[in-house]
Each structure stands twice: as C-alpha cells, then as structure tokens.
Amino acid sequence: MALTQFQPQPNHYELHDPDVRLMLQVRDGDAAAFTELVLRYQNRLLTILEHLVGNREQAEDLTQDVFVRVFKARERYAPEAKFSTWLFTIANNVASNALRSRSRRREVGVPEGNGSDSVPLSLDQMAKAASGFMPTRALDKAEQAEMVRHAVSNLNERQRMALLLAKFEGMSYQDIAQSMGLSVQAIKSLLSRARVNLKEMLTPYVESGTPPEEEQPKTVSGE
C-alpha cells in the first residue's frame, strides 16, 4: 500500500491573514512579496517609531532596521500570530534598544541631535488619538494635534507603545500583549494608566491653555 505524502494544513493565520501569506512567499524566496510588505507597512512603522523616539531621521533608520530584521528572519518564519503582531514585536524591540542606547549616551555625556526636525503625526491621527482623553473645548486642529503630541511624548515608553498600537494600529489587547511581551492584564493596566496620565496632562491645557510641563513628564509608574 503506497503511503500518501503528508501535506501540512494551513493554520488559522495562513487562512485569514493575507500578510502572513505574503511573508510565507518571502520565506520561499519571493522578492516581490517582500516589496509588497514594505509598501504596506513602512509608513505605519515610521509613524509608530517616530512617535516613540521623537526624531524623524532616527525613526526612518529604525524602520529600515526592522525590515532588515524581517528579511534576515525569513527562513525561520512561522505564522504563529498575525503578521502585524509579529512585525510590531520586532519594532518594539528595535525601539526599546534605541531608547536604551540613547539613555546610555546621555549618562556618559555623548551629545545627540535635539530632534527639532521631527515631523509630528498627521492632524487627523492626532485628533483621533485625543478623543476620549480630554474635556470638550473648541480647538483648531493644529492646536489639538500639537497638544496631544506633546502629552503623548511625556508618557513612559511602555505606556506610549501600548497606546500607539491601540489607537493607530487598532490592535487588540491580546495582539498588543504579544507584541510587547506582556500579559493582557498588564496591557489593560498600561492603557488605563496612559489614559489617566493623558487626561491629567491635557485637562489644564484644555481649560486654560497651559501646555503640559515638558520637564515634568507624567511617568508616574513603572508600568
């Protein structure tokens, strides 16, 4: 009796995530599939990373680094999560390493750019991010965008990353947890604290026009 060759069955992510299928093509040597993934995600990654590190040029370098890591890992790729979850896991690690490196340079007194060339997120994105975090007052889009950008930049790294993935990527608690290597409960706590901290920073501005104090960022907890 002839043995039938075993054919592995597609898993949930292969069946339901077209980006997973593209990455599997990359794993099999399809350069065009990799180009398609870059086109789909480069602006989204740049937005998240720029908001994390506060500098456009560095965010561009980190975005490139993320895609280099994706390409190097292609032969080991296994679809155990959504492609976006896997990608932002890499992005989170890259950003965390960059921020730690920046902190070490500051400790030893190595000068760095001031980030003045940083381009803020689009006004529409900022307006969306602001919703639910502050009381209602008539603000023009430019004022609201700058206010929220400033407040979000004062969150600690983990709160900021969780918030950006939730607001701009629309990721679930489970996917954010997987991307950041934390529990779902920890992500819920991070987002809850981020909302409280943002409201504390934004309320005085909305009521009186006083911007958040940059020298006193709201990083009140280790979460």
Short structural description:
The chain is mainly alpha-helical and 223 residues long. Helix content is 65%, strand content 0%. The C terminus is likely disordered.
Features:
223 residues, mainly alpha, Rna Polymerase Sigma Factor, Chain: A, Arc Repressor Mutant, subunit A, 2 domains, 10 helices, 65% helix
How much helical structure, as a percent, in the residues? 55-70%
Broad CATH class of the largest domain: Mainly Alpha
Low-confidence stretches: 108-138, 214-222
CATH homolog superfamily of the largest domain: RNA polymerase sigma factor, region 2, helix turn helix motif
The general outline is: globular
CATH architecture of the largest domain: Orthogonal Bundle
Q: What are the secondary-structure elements, in order, as H or E? A: HHHHHHHHHH
Decide which structural class fits the backbone. mainly alpha
Which fold name is given in CATH as the topology of the largest domain?
A: Rna Polymerase Sigma Factor, Chain: A
Q: What's the N-to-C terminus distance?
A: 61 Å
- Please, how many helices? 10
**What's the domain count?**
2
State the major sheet: none
The amount of beta strand, in percent, is under 5%
Q: Provide mean pLDDT, rounded.
A: 77
**Radius of gyration using CA atoms only:** 20 Å
Q: How many strands in all? A: 0
How are the elements arranged and paired?
Blueprint: H1 12-16, H2 18-27, H3 31-53, H4 56-72, H5 83-107, H6 123-130, H7 141-153, H8 157-167, H9 173-180, H10 184-208
Helix pairs in contact: 2-3, 3-4, 3-5, 4-5, 5-9, 6-7, 7-10, 8-9, 8-10, 9-10
Overview of the molecule:
It is a single chain. This protein has 223 residues and is mainly alpha-helical. The chain has two domains: 12-107, Rna Polymerase Sigma Factor, Chain: A (Orthogonal Bundle); 123-208, Arc Repressor Mutant, subunit A. 65% of the residues lie in helices and 0% in strands. It contains ten helices and no strands. It has helices at 12-16, 18-27, 31-53, 56-72, 83-107, 123-130, 141-153, 157-167, 173-180, 184-208. Helix 5 crosses helix 9 (173-180) and helix 8 (157-167) crosses helix 10. The radius of gyration is 20 Å and the shape is globular. The termini are far apart. The relative contact order is 0.11. The model is unreliable at 108-138 and 214-222 (pLDDT under 50).
